[in-house]
Each structure stands twice: as structure tokens, then as C-alpha cells.
Amino acid sequence: MEMESPKTQAPLPFHNYKLLRRATLNRLFMAVHMAGIIALLYHHVHTLLFTTSSITFSLLLLSDLILAFMWGCSQAFHLRPIRRRELLHNLEKWVEERDFPSVDIFICTADPQKEPPMGTVNTALSVMAYDYPPEKVSVYVSDDGGAQATLFAFMEAAKFARHWLPFCRDNHLVERCPEVYFSSPCYSSSTPEADKLKVRVENTVERGKPLEEHIEDEEMHKAFAKWTPNFTRQNHPPIIQVLLASSKDEDVMGGMMPNLIYVSREKNKTHPHHFKAGALNTLLRVSATMTNAPIFLTLDCDTYSSDPQTVKRALCYFLDSKLRPKLAYVQFPQIFRGLNKGDIYFSEHKRLFQINPMGMDGLQGPNYVGAACFFYRRALFGSPSGFIEPEIPTVSPNQIVQKSIGSGDILKLAQHVAVCSYEDQTEWGSKLGFRYGSLVEDYHTGYRIKCEGWKGIFCYPERPAFLGDVPMTLIDVFGQCKRWVIGLLEVLFSKYNTLTFGLPRIGPLAIAYTHYACWPIYCIPLTLYAFIPQLALLNGVSTFPKVTDPWSLLYVFLYLGASGKDLLDFLLEKGTFMRWWNSQRMWMISGVTCFLFGCIEYTLSSLGIAMAGFNVTSKVQDDELKKRYDQGVFEFGVASPMFVPLTMAAIINLISFVVGFMGILTRGMVNMEGLILQILLSGFVAVNCWPIYEAMVFRSDKGRMPTKTTLTSAFLVAFLYMVTGVCLKI
Ligand SMILES: O=c1ccn([C@@H]2O[C@H](COP(=O)(O)OP(=O)(O)O[C@H]3O[C@H](CO)[C@@H](O)[C@H](O)[C@H]3O)[C@@H](O)[C@H]2O)c(=O)[nH]1
Ligand SMILES: [Mn+2]
């Protein structure tokens, strides 16, 4: 269906933007800092020519080269940051509701254990209740877990929606996610319908399948009969169930309802399913056969809507006739709920989700981040000028659906496009739809469609449009980050490399994408800086200039400059000092853990030794765990190899700080001049490592550092010290 344009060109704009005032400061800072970096590199080369410990100094030069490169790439985010505003009143004044385009909403879930169906249901209800003509909204739920409990949850949700939607509408609720609404302080109690929904769904999840007595009609019986004894998550036929059809279902007040469709694509062992990208492509096709809305929204199961005006906000851009020909997507920031005060794991990712997209928006648009993004369907079918016709016309974005969504023909077609073999010998995943080949399908797809000539918009309203959940344990945080790292490396080392492929196509924006693609290699400088200067100190070798040498000031200047600027950016986007502090700590921690292990795993998988998969992040909230998280305590608990280098770094920095400090006391400042910067560095790292010492020594709860990890790390540190004693002399 083509998008109707407003009858007349609106005399008033639907949106505007302004360049952020900090842009000038950014550019000034860039020039000064750049000069500093060049001076530092000059100094490095100079030292290297006259030193006897060439290995140490070469490694430090390598580290600084990488840091300089990354800093350089990150400047693309600061060249032209803009902030947009939507002028909703103009839209409402000039475009009539009946001219609004219809919208398909895709919600992905993959595992009923890690992603409780009640959460997914809440997300779905929050968007079904959008302040938008209900007959123009269709919600498609993709269940990669193939779980009866999820289907059952949505059958119950469909019933509950009949009460919930008119209730939201009549009371003009702003918070339309039932769970959040009922737990808000002004409403201490829930309604009987909501309670029934919750109890039934949670019991079903526990049991794995619904009780006979809860299966009320023939239709439901037929649906659950598809779960035959040999049905498994990895091997089952496609299941598509229309749970609400706006053409026939009504709410309790007689009002219209949106469509609600459950989709679990076929799975078998002979076909790769391409994780979330595969799920989204199935939804793209299934929705094309049923509603084929020109605009669709992608959501994760935990990303509920927190503002009923959101679709209209996105329309402020999609209905702008000047933008439309090239506008592929409108990305909202991913914002999270339930963060602890200091956001100890820096799950907020303020730079990734809030600060940097404003910078990319000033170039050609933000990166797509997987959820909270409205797409122009046509953008997934070739470049703005080069439409690619899919293999069957019924999944084409231009086709208009004639029959009603529940009809036999449509269902048959929908099943057909949801089978594994459908994509064989087609362009899905390479030229059509969401792109395969990377675990960060979002980054990859957004980047590739930009390279085709499309643009994106960053829509960053005052009130968060969507809110999501964050991982509560360090191991979950690392698991997520490691998956991202592997996915990014997959793009970096593909033929779509952001410099060789991207730079000629999207210019400066490619530099921003490069910063992300290279994110994983931060592990090199971060690991080297966590060990080399400290080991050198213990062996009495100086790695930085003496404090009396003016060159030492350059180190101080560069460090303070870069982090001061970063802090400023953070505070300007409503960040707090504590959260900033934790973000820089998490950066250092990631360097020796998930970045490092992600790089190793990627290398192994490209050698064919291991295979990386999409490990879904847990969204379950265990009470005891949640309590520790809320108190801001790090959760270790399991003996993961990833904790070993981290613990080693914590130990060695403490030792080298203490040894250095004792040196100053016993031998006097003058004799230690050459080691002062190393002592400061160790002290700084040690201060950051406080939660790790606590977890190793002072804690007795379940989340403490396993003794095994502590002992292994201590042993390895001793070993490293002995080895480097020899090496450092070279
Ligand atoms: O085979 C799969 C695997 C995952 N998912 C869904 O993908 C979403 C994201 O998974 P999650 O475990 O929450 O990953 P995160 O790392 O938290 O997600 C971020 O990173 C992903 C890319 O790695 C993006 O897809 C997400 O949108 C982005 O929020 C969830 O709704 C899952 O149900 C599937 O549908 N099928
Ligand atoms: Mn997630």
C-alpha cells in the first residue's frame, strides 16, 4: 500500500531541528586535542629509537595508536550534533486521521524462560493501546521459542485487551503498559481482569502448557494441537494464529480493536534461522500477506511503549514530503527502566543510545539499534531509486491486501512465507529485508541501507517513547557485550567493511560506523594498559616520562582533556557524575573481559573451531538478585573465565600501587620520579577495582567472586610477574 500524502502541502512544518550549541566547542576541542595526540606519537617514536626495552615501548605505542584512531573516529559523533523537535499540533491540524497510514508492529521474543511471556504481553498491550486509529494498527508477535505458554499468554492478552484499550482511551492514560500502570504509586490495586491474566499466564509458563479447562473453544484446541509430541523449539512447523482481527473483534465498549497475530516461524535443523534478523524477515513477509502497512515498528519483547503519541511523532517525519523519498527509518533512543542509582554496569549506554545518535543525525542519520525504530517498508526492498521486486508479488511493499486477515487463502499464504526453505535461492538477508551475517543485525542492516542511499532520523522526545529492561548480573552484561563484539567484527571483516565499502558511499558517517565496528579492538590498549606499566613498575622499569619532564604533562593533559570532555557531554545529556564514573569503569572492565573474549571467540569461529550464536539476554527478575542490584552491588557468582583477567588486573594494580607507594616512602620522591605516572595509573585502576576487591575478600553472599577465580587469578599474576621479569629486560 502506498502512503497517502496529505491532501495539500502543509503550510506549517511538522518538525524542526537545531545544531547543538556545543558543536563549536567540540570543533575547538578537536583541534587542540589532535595537536596533543600528534605530539604524543612523536614522543613515542623518539623514545622507541633510544630505548633498550623495545617490546614494552612498542606495545605502548600500539596502544596509543589504537586509542588515537578510536578517538579520531569518535569525532564524527561530535562534528554536527543536532536536536530535533516534532510539532505534533501541526500534524494534527493538517492531516486528518483517516489519512494516517497503517502501521505494523513487530515484537520479537525467543525464550519463555529468559523472556517471561507476561513481559512480552505487556509490551504488546502498550502498543495496541496507542493513541492511533485502532483499525490501522496490527501487532505481530514473533515467537522463536515456539512456546505454547507464549501463545496462551497472547490468547489471554487478547481478551484482556478488550477491557484495557477502552479503559486507556476513556481515562486518557499516558502510561499504557498495564504492569507499569498497576504498579504506579497512585494505583495500588489491580483489576480482576488483570489479576486473572497474570495468574493464568504465569502458571502456564511454569507448567509449559495451558490447562485443558483454560482452552475454551474449538479454535484454541486446534491451535494447541500443533504441539505434537515431536515438536521442539528447533524443529517445528510454522504456526500463525490471528488472535484479534479488527474487522470483526470489538472491545467491551463496542469500539474497534487492532489486529493481533501470533507467528512462530518454521524451524528445522537443515536451515540456519539467522536469529533475530531471520525472525524479522519472516514477520516482514507474513505481515505483507495480511496487512502490508507502509510503516512498521520493530520492538524487543521487553521494550514497551511509554507514550501513546509515539506513532504520530514518527509520522511528523514520514509525512514530510521533502524527507519521504529517502527516509528509511525513524529511530527512537533505547532507554531503560529499573537502573540502579549509579547504573553500575553502565547498561544505559548513554553514548550509544542518546549522545552519538544526535551526532550521526547531523550527518545522515543515526544507526539502527534493533528496537524502537519505525521503518518505511519499502526501504528493505532496494535503494530509493532501485526497487528490488521480491520473488512473489504478494510480499512486495506495493501490493494492496484485498482479503481479510483471517481468511483461509491468506493464512495459507502466510504459512507459506514462514517456512524455512522459503528463503532458499532468494535475496532475503543479502539484498532484501534485514541483513544476515552478523550477530548485530541492527547495526549491520542500518549501515547497509544507509550505503544504498537511504537516510535515518533520530527522534528523541522529552518523555521516553519506549523503555526496556537491563541485565542484572555481570555475566549477563558480558554475554550481551560479547555478542555485540562478535557481530561488529563480523561486519568489520566482511566485504562491507565500513572504510573500504562505507567511506565511498556515506562519507563521514562511515567514520562513525567505523568507530563502532572497531569497538572490540579497545581490548588491546585496555589490556596492555592494565598490565604492562604495572609489571614494568614491579620490575623497576619506567614506561612514562619522569614527572619533572614536561612530556609527562602531555599524558596528563590528554587524559584529563579526553575524560573531561566526555564528562561534559555526559552531564549535558542529563547524566550524573556517578554514572559517568561507572561508565568509564565499565569501559575498562569490558576491555579485559567481554571485548577480549569476544575477539578471541570471533577468531576461533573464523578458524572454524567454534560457532557463535545469539545468546538471549535474560529479562527475569529474581528477588534476591534484584535486591543486590538495587543496592548497587556487583554480581559475580559464577566462575566464568571472563572474570579471570579482570581479577588479575585488579590484583596486579593493587600490588604495583602499594609497591610504588612504599618506594616513595622509603626511597624518596626524587628516586621514584620515573615511576610516578605508573604509580598514579595503578592507583587509578585500583580505585576503580574496589567492587572487585570487595567481591574477592569481603563478601559472603551468592554474588561474591568464586574462590576458584580468585586463586586462579592470583596464581596467573605470579606467573606473569616471573615471565615478564625476564622479558622486560629485552
Ligand atoms: O533467535 C533469536 C534471538 C533473539 N531474538 C530477539 O531479539 C531481541 C533482542 O535480544 P536480547 O537478548 O534482548 O539482546 P540485547 O543485546 O539486549 O539487544 C540489543 O542488541 C541486539 C543485537 O545483538 C538487537 O537485536 C536488540 O534490538 C538490541 O536491543 C529479543 O526480543 C529476542 O527475543 C529473536 O527473536 N530470535
Ligand atoms: Mn534486550
UniProtKB/TrEMBL annotation:
GO annotation (BP), single: cellulose biosynthetic process
Active-site positions on this chain: D144, D442
InterPro entries hit by this protein: Cellulose_synth (IPR005150), Nucleotide-diphossugar_trans (IPR029044)
Membrane topology annotation: Multi-pass membrane protein
UniProt superkingdom: Eukaryota
Chain sites annotated for binding Mn(2+): K276, D300
GO MF annotation list: cellulose synthase (UDP-forming) activity
Record localization: Endomembrane system
Pfam families cross-referenced by the UniProt entry: Cellulose_synt
UniProt binding sites for UDP-alpha-D-glucose: K114, E115, D144
Principal location: membrane
GO cellular component, one term: membrane
Keywords: Cell wall biogenesis/degradation, Glycosyltransferase, Membrane, Transferase, Transmembrane, Transmembrane helix
Transmembrane segments: 28-45, 57-77, 513-532, 552-572, 592-616, 636-662, 674-693, 709-728
Listed PANTHER family: X-BOX TRANSCRIPTION FACTOR-RELATED (PTHR13301)
Protein name: Cellulose synthase-like protein G3
Organism encoding this protein: Carnegiea gigantea
Organism placement in taxonomy: Eukaryota, Viridiplantae, Streptophyta, Embryophyta, Tracheophyta
